[in-house]
């Protein structure tokens, strides 16, 4: 219910600025990295330990930007990340790679602190809707731990970016819950903290309808900026 309401609000906001005098369409690619976590969890008098190294991956997608000084930027991205999991049980250490395959739909609300035809500096934040797209659901050689990938999640993106001519560069901090439920065979869930990750992406503007505002001096002469 919450996801539906947020999706409706952000969609209406995007539509309300669609007719803006300035909009941009393009595609992007980027690099993802997430901070690892440590979690000790006790079960049946055993000490189970889960540890994830930095997850690294790639992102490809498209973006649109509507607005002049204040703008809305919806995106459609595919992410492929690989996280290395270390799992210790009964004095055995097992290491495996988990592949995270997701579709993400951020809707960012931004402000252009500097906005010219050849350069702009932007700040942005907004919700991100993430959907599982075929991630791993098993760890090799582990029978007592069950992985269940969440079908859909809501997260938060925030960061800054700048454009130079037709190139667009974004650096963002992402906060979102773990994609996986970790459960034991008797369905007891091992709770994990949210993932803190960063994304650096570079985009290419296929279409950019920048139009300079008109300003008038005291002699009623037009000044463009």
Mean pLDDT: 77
Adjacency order of strands in the biggest sheet: 1-4-5-6-7-9-10-13
The low-confidence parts are: 37-45
How would you spell out the order of helices and strands?
HEEEEEEEEEEEEEEE
| Number of β-strand runs | 15
- The secondary-structure class comes to mainly beta
Q: What share of the residues does DSSP label as strand, in percent?
A: over 45%
Helix content: under 10%
Separation, N- and C-terminal Cα atoms:
44 Å
Main beta sheet: strand number and arrangement? 8 strands, antiparallel, barrel
The number of helical elements comes to 1
Structure overview:
- 7% of the residues lie in helices and 68% in strands.
- Residues 37-45 have low confidence and may be disordered.
- The chain has one helix at 2-16; strands spanning 23-34, 37-43, 46-52, 55-67, 70-89, 92-115, 119-132, 145-149, 152-164, 167-176, 180-184, 189-190, 195-208, 214-216, 222-224.
- It is mainly beta.
- The strands form three sheets. Strands 1-4-5-6-7-9-10-13 form an eight-stranded antiparallel barrel. Strands 8-11-12 form a three-stranded antiparallel beta sheet, with no helix packed on it.
């Amino acid at each position: 219910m919450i996801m539906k309401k947020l999706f409706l609000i952000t969609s209406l906001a995007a539509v309300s600025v669609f007719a803006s005098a300035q909009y941009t369409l393009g595609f992007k690619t980027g690099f993802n990295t997430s901070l690892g976590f440590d979690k000790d969890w006790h079960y049946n008098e055993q000490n189970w330990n889960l540890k994830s190294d930095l997850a690294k991956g790639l992102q490809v997608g498209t973006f649109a930007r509507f607005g002049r000084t204040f703008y809305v930027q919806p995106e459609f991205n595919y992410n492929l990340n690989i996280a290395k999991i270390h799992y210790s049980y009964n004095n055995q250490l097992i290491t495996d790679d988990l592949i995270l395959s997701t579709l993400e739909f951020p809707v960012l609300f931004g402000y252009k602190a500097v906005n010219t035809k050849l350069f702009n500096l932007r700040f942005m934040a907004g919700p991100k809707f993430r959907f599982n797209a075929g991630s791993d659901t098993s760890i090799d050689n582990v029978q007592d731990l069950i992985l269940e990938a969440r079908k859909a999640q809501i997260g938060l993106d925030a960061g800054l970016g700048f454009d130079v001519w037709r190139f667009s560069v974004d650096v963002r901090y992402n906060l979102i819950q773990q994609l996986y439920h970790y459960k034991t065979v008797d369905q007891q869930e091992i709770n994990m903290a949210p993932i803190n990750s960063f994304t650096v992406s570079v985009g290419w503007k296929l279409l950019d309808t920048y139009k300079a505002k008109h300003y008038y001096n005291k002699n009623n002469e037009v000044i463009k900026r």
